[in-house]
Design a protein that fits this description.
This protein is of the alpha/beta class. 30% of the residues lie in helices and 19% in strands. It has helices at residues 31-45, 66-79, 93-102, 135-143, 166-174, 178-182, 200-205, 236-244; strands spanning 16-17, 20-24, 55-60, 83-87, 107-111, 120-127, 159-162, 187-191, 211-215, 249-252. Strands 1-2-6-5-3-4-7 form a 7-stranded mixed β-sheet, with helices on both faces. The chain has a 3-stranded parallel β-sheet with strand order 9-8-10.
């Protein structure tokens, strides 16, 4: 598939969709295509009206090559003179939003294909508010694709690799009456579907009378052969466990943990 020039995107097999670019790895989603999108995003980043444009946060999910693609995107931003805060581990896409907003940045990038099958990967853009980028911002980046690689600063900026997961976890925990939840004596099943949530809910909820059983927390680039979309047809394991044990609640999240 080749996206039309009408939408400004001319990367074969890596079209602009409703929330970023997604394509099959080694097909449309390649290191070159991600670098091109990152270069275009960096070119537009300097013109954003709100937030700190000297720095950007970049996260990634646990998909195949996500850490390496995130590093490639970070290097492009750094060459454009924009300092990068790069996650040192897979994190939920909302963690990128959280840090962009917390630090007053103009925005952030997430390397992820969300709930798509394992053979996909892609790029999402987040704004200074933490929201998904509006269509006009995506369109501006798409229009900047051609020639964007030529935009480089005289001196490259720094890339700081750091833990962006723990502070996001602590922030989530601060938003609820955590002591009441931990002491409630509930029995909770969590299913991360081998995605970016990992052990996040288990870490937050554990430590009291509430019992937490976590499924599919380990990284698996094939997602156990199941699409990481939390719909009934993909949750057979969680449903079976719920059926034979006495749980009060099951909580599942998609591949990049922006849906629960």
């Amino acid at each position: 598939m080749i996206a039309s020039k009408a939408d400004g995107s001319s990367i074969p097999g890596f079209p602009l969709g409703t929330d970023g670019w997604r394509g099959v790895l080694a097909g449309g989603c390649t290191f070159d295509s991600v670098r091109r999108v990152a270069a275009a995003a960096a070119a537009v980043y300097w013109r954003l009206p709100e937030g700190d444009r000297s720095r950007v946060v970049i996260g990634h999910d646990p998909r195949f090559l996500s850490p390496e693609l995130a590093r490639a995107a970070a290097e492009v931003f750094a060459k454009a003179g924009i300092s990068v805060l790069l996650t040192d581990r897979p994190i939920p896409t909302p963690a990128v939003s959280h840090h962009a907003r917390r630090m007053g940045l103009a925005g952030g990038l997430a390397i992820t294909a969300s709930h798509n099958p394992a053979e996909y990967n892609g790029v999402k853009i987040k704004t200074h508010q933490g929201s998904s980028a509006r269509p006009e911002l995506y369109e501006a980046v798409a229009r900047a694709l051609d020639g964007a690689m030529a935009r480089e600063a005289p001196h490259a900026a720094a890339i700081e690799t750091l833990n962006l997961g723990s502070s996001y976890r602590d922030h989530l925990a601060s938003l609820v009456s955590l002591d009441r939840i931990r002491s409630a004596g509930l029995s909770v099943l969590t299913d991360s579907m081998h995605g970016a949530a990992g052990t996040l809910l288990e870490e937050i909820l554990s430590g009291g009378a509430t019992r937490v059983v976590a499924l599919h927390t380990e990284r698996d680039a094939l997602f156990g052969g199941v699409h990481p979309e939390p719909i009934a047809s993909n949750l057979a394991a969680a449903a079976e466990r719920m059926g034979r044990e006495d749980f009060d609640l099951a909580v599942t999240q998609d591949g990049d943990a922006d849906r629960l």
